[in-house]
Amino acid sequence: MLSVLSPLSSESLPLYRRNHRTLLVSCSSVSEVEKPPADLDPRPGLRRAARFPEIGEAKRVVLVRHGQSTWNEEGRIQGSSDHSVLTTKGELQAETSRQMLLGDSFEVCFTSPLIRSKRTAKIIWDSRKDKVLEEPDLREIDLYSFQGLLKHEGKEKFGGAYRQWQQDAANFQIDGHYPVRELWDRAESCWNKILAHEGRSVLVVAHNAVNQALVATAIGLGPKYFRILLQSNCGVSVLDFAPRMGGESPHIRLNRLNQTPNSPVTFGSSAGRKTNARLILVCHGATQSNEAAYSDFVYEPLNMLGIIQSQKTAELLLDLKVNCLVCSPRIASADTATAIREVQEAADCLGADCVPRFVEVKKMLELEVESILQRAHKISRKAASFQPGCIVDLNDTSMLELWTQSKKAWHSLLQQLFFESESESESERNVVAIAHPAAHIALITQSLKLTAEWMDSFHLDAGSISIIDFPDGPEGKGVIRCLNYTAHLGRWSVPVTRSLGNDEEF
Predict the structure, then answer these.
(1) How high is the pLDDT of residue 206?
(2) How many angstroms separate the CA atoms of 299 and 40, rounded?
(3) In 111, 151, 394, 430, which residue has its Cα 20 to 30 A from 276's Cα atom?
(4) Which residues, in sequence order, are bridge partners of residue 3?
């Protein structure tokens, strides 16, 4: 059965406040901690004006967090201390990352000087002849008196300061320092050194917090986005830099976030916070227009590659119990939704009780963006506007139209995630949305509470998935668990670090 969704009404959010009063009170308890006199973060949605050096040609930077360390395993606050080493699991994670990046001809590797990072870099760099460069500013966040404490010790010893670290990290103060703000300044300094290197393909091996800061500062997000861009042990993130004329800072796009050695869909904590609500954005598989110059794909189905991609995605999602599938009315999205539904229902029937479970598929008109892209194409006459992830050719009017429509879709998806549960006793809620990559790029900006100008800062491939967790409910920023994940596609995936041609545009 297919149904059409309506946007979330403004009356629905106060209902969430009434039903989840305890959560909201606990999140506001940081008011008892004295705030600093000034907040370096701009108002929500406003891009930070970081200045990066001019580059002469396209550059790709691959960020990797170190493998699991002994202090990760013990639950200690590491910060920039250097007393932990990789566990056996951490060594294996680093080896998996090495294999993931085996085909890339990196020209240089930068690493944090801390032992856990250097060991991870050594494993990934393997037999390459070039020397690994240690960069002190790539060390993990400086947490001063917090370092070395178990989490419960931090709560007992520092009380209000520890609560502020957990709930308002951008304004967190300890020992006369604002660690997250210092980290953001350090990350911007790192970019000046990384981009000054002549290499077109750069590997950076560092840590959780500093990699978050590197991603955020690259695309213009301030310290309030700390813990929003997840970095798992040995997770891989990719940033693309394109030169601009006239000495301007390069155009920067987040190509991939947190592609992990293990499946990203298994439920767990989200940046250290418990979450039981998850939105999975599935880009429909390839169609004929993905592989050729402009063609009329208004009602175009998946091609053979797209069918394979949809099946691979359905298999990956078997690790989750999908509560609801929401898709664009377009054939490619609807067919992808059908593939996921059939695999979910078949898996339920294979259980011990063999009780089939019906997974409802709902069509959402607001997820249909192809008509906007088609109108933009007629104006620009550039086929690139239709390619997955390539929305930079859209004019401002089309970009704003796409973003405005995505806002309605976003509210409708929140309705499905938080207000349309089958029972109050559900331990977790997973909603899968299937649409064109451009639709999901716009939804990611909605999740991060960003304006339309940010949409050209993200890239998604056909058949990819992106996952957003909601530890703070529908009103908080979603935590991006991964973006443009394609490892599940196997040989049919887009390589994490595909080669950059001299004339490549992104």
Answers:
(1) 98
(2) 48
(3) 151
(4) 362
The reported pLDDT for the residue numbered 292 is 40
Can you tell me the distance from the alpha carbon of 253 to that of 239, in angstroms, rounded to the nearest whole number? Answer: 6
CA atoms within 13 A on the CB side of 51: 2
- Measure the CA–CA gap between 457 and 506, rounded to whole angstroms: 10
Amino acid sitting at position 54: E
Beta carbons of 55 and 243 less than 8 angstroms apart: yes
Instruction: Look at residue 195 in the predicted model and tell me its pLDDT.
Output: 93
3-state secondary structure of 231: coil
Which tokens sit at 139? 């060390």
Six-digit token pair at 172?
């967190």
- Tell me, what's the pLDDT at 47? 59
Neighbours of 1 (CB within 10 A): 6
In this prediction, residue 498 carries a pLDDT of 57
d(CA 380, CA 206): 41
Which pLDDT belongs to residue 82? 97
d(CA 396, CA 392): 10
- Give me the pLDDT at residue 447, please: 95
pLDDT computed for residue 350 by the predictor = 60
> If you ran DSSP here, which 8-state letter would residue 458 be given?
B
Q: How does DSSP assign 420-476, residue by residue?
A: --S-TT-S-EEEEEEE-HHHHHHHHHHHTT--GGGGGGB---TT-EEEEE-TT-TTS
The pTM assigned to this predicted structure is 0.86
What is d(CA 324, CA 421) in angstroms, rounded to the nearest whole number? 9
Helix (H, G, I), strand (E, B) or coil at 86: strand
Kindly give, in sequence order, each residue whose CB lies less than 8 Å from that of residue 69, ignoring residues fewer than 6 positions away.
Answer: 78, 84, 85, 86, 87, 90, 116
Chain position carrying tokens 């405005």: 404
Which tokens go with 40?
């370096």
Neighbours of 506 (CB within 10 A): 16
Residue that has been written with the tokens 């506007």 in this structure: 385
Which residues lie closer than 8 Å to 416 by C-beta, 6 or more apart? 5, 324, 326, 362, 431
CA distance linking residue 282 with residue 309, whole number of Å = 11
Among all residues, which ones are annotated catalytic? 66, 140
Per-residue burial over 181-219, b if 16 or more Cβ lie within 10 Å, else e, is bebbebbbebbeebbeeebbbbbbbbbbbbbbbbbbbbb
- Give pLDDT, residue 69: 98
Mean pLDDT by 10 residues, the chain (506 residues): 42 33 27 37 52 89 98 96 97 94 89 98 91 96 96 93 94 96 96 91 97 97 96 96 86 94 75 83 86 49 94 93 94 96 81 65 94 77 45 75 96 91 69 96 95 93 95 87 93 65 43
Residues with Cβ within 8 Å of residue 26, at least 6 apart in sequence: none
Residues belonging to the chain = 506
Domains of the chain: 2-6+271-492 (3.40.50.1240), 55-249 (3.40.50.1240)
DSSP type of residue 56 = S
Tokens for 272, please give them: 């250290």
